[in-house]
Amino acid sequence: MIDTHCHLADQAFAKDLDAVILRGRTVGVGRMVTIGDSLEESRACVKIVEKHPDVFCAVGVHPHHAKEWEEGDREQLGAMVAGSEKVRAIGEIGLDYHYDYSPRDAQKRAFEDQLVLAKEINISAVVHNRESLPDLLAIISRVAPPALVLHCCTERWKDVKPLVEKGYMLSFTGMATYPSAGDVRETIKQCPLEQMMLETDAPYLAPVPHRGERNEPAFVMEVAKLVAKIKSLAVEEVDRVTTANAVRFFGL
Fold first, then answer.
1. Which of 9, 63, 131, 232 is 20 to 30 A from 84 (CA-CA)?
2. Looking at residue 212, what DSSP letter applies?
């Protein structure tokens, strides 16, 4: 199984990262993808993957940091991709209109610039959305990147179905285990397993029965169990298909 989205460079893991990665391996999480949300954190992710053979990464600037986006940042991200074979995606990029930590025009500019970069160098994009779907879909349609995942998908099926119809992926976290997440579970039910990936978004969004704890890659198993229950499949089948999806998406 692969945790396709975790933030191992987060300060929450600063004291015990090796132990966290080992716990994931012990329960069968064979590979992990750690995600950058700023240039600084992206560089930290590259250092982590150099140390751990089963960890890969994505590099990018999150919409919260879009106000810091400058023209030369594209080249810095491109250099990170070129400089390490373990950088497998551009991300986490996207739009976030819930917090608006960056002006929306700045968010759209940074998102489109990075999405164009992903297309130019033919690498997958890991995309964040919060309360911004119309603008997000418009930019995606305009750029038409070759491979994209909407990470931590919490949207209703009817709203994200257009992405799936374009061949893009949806990824689900432990949030789907929360009692209030009926819309997410319905989207899981409707989404073809072949276009689905599993993630933790650790250290955030720990699934039931770990809710309230620090999340970590080992807990991605709880997401797999939920998907298996919703789709009336064996956990082993969910593992097999979603792992194959992640291998293909990230070129693992």
1. 63
2. T
- Tally the residues of the chain: 252
What are the counts of helices (DSSP H) followed by strands (DSSP E) for the chain? 9, 8
Could you say which DSSP state residue 219 is in? G
Mean pLDDT in residue range 218-240 = 98
State pLDDT tens for residues 179-204. 999 999 999 999 999 999 999 999 99
Distance of alpha carbon 156 from alpha carbon 136, whole angstroms: 15
User: Is pTM, for the whole model, over 0.90?
Assistant: yes
Residues 139, 163 contacting (CB under 8 angstroms): no
Which pLDDT value is given to residue 138?
98
Kindly report, residue by residue over 64-109, the tens digit of the pLDDT. 999 999 989 999 999 999 999 999 999 999 999 999 999 999 999 9
The one-letter amino acid at 37: D
C-alpha to C-alpha distances, 20 to 13, 77, 201, 242, nearest whole angstrom: 8, 27, 14, 22
Q: What is the DSSP string of 171-196?
A: EE-GGGGSTT-HHHHHHHHHS-GGGE
